[in-house]
Amino acid sequence: MGVAQLILIEGMIGSGKTTIAMRVGDWLARRGENARVFCECAADHPIRTRAEDRLRAAAGPQAPGPPGRAGDATAAVSLRAYPAGQWRRLAEGCLRDGQTIILEGSFLQNSVMPAFIDGAPVRTVTEICTTIQRQAAPAEPLPSCRPLFPGASRPRHREP
């Protein structure tokens, strides 16, 4: 049995995030690990962002639940109206339950990029990243970023 961890799969639309997340989850399950995959539009996704709520609304007839942990009626009093501690709660739950959590597109794509798109100052974007990093740190997040262009060759390290 391995150590519970938070795995973040990021990348552009169509780059294979869902496929990789599902394959990693299946691989861990075959090894007897306690693992759970959350794809972007999952109704019970533990991280709620405005971008993901828009995806959920477009994906199905059910209206998205309140911001925060899915099924959690807690609403934050913040400019973003999403609970500030949701990444911390996720990390704590991951460790408490001994579970590896695999999130698709939740950090960069749906938590950080909307701030850029909305024209937020660099300071705000940095604050978002720092807060998420600090809150998720106990679960030792393992980020994985899919290439921008799946067929593109990867840069190679050159020896001096």
Keywords:
single chain, 160 residues, alpha/beta, 38% helix, globular, Rossmann fold, disordered C terminus, 4-stranded parallel sheet, 4 strands
What report would you give on this structure?
With 160 residues, this protein is of the alpha/beta class. The chain is built from five helices and four strands; from the N terminus they run E-H-E-H-H-E-H-H-E. The chain has helices at 17-30, 50-59, 86-97, 108-117, 122-136; strands spanning 6-10, 35-38, 100-104, 142-145. The chain has a four-stranded parallel sheet. The model is unreliable at 63-80 and 152-158 (pLDDT under 50).
Structure summary:
This protein has 160 residues and is α/β, with parallel strands linked by helices. The chain has helices at residues 17-30, 50-59, 86-97, 108-117, 122-136, and strands at 6-10, 35-38, 100-104, 142-145.
| SSE sequence, one letter per element | EHEHHEHHE
Report the C-alpha radius of gyration, rounded: 16 Å
Task: Tell me the helix content.
Answer: 25-40%
Known CATH architecture? 3-Layer(aba) Sandwich
- pLDDT averaged residue by residue: 76
The percentage of residues in β strands lies in 5-15%
Sheet/helix structural class: alpha/beta
Tell me the major beta sheet. 4 strands, parallel
CATH topology: Rossmann fold
Low-confidence stretches: 63-80, 152-158
Number of domains: 1
Report the strand count. Answer: 4
What's the CATH class label?
Alpha Beta
Shape: globular
End-to-end separation in angstroms reads 40 Å
| Strand neighbour order, sheet with most strands | 2-3-1-4
Count helical runs: 5
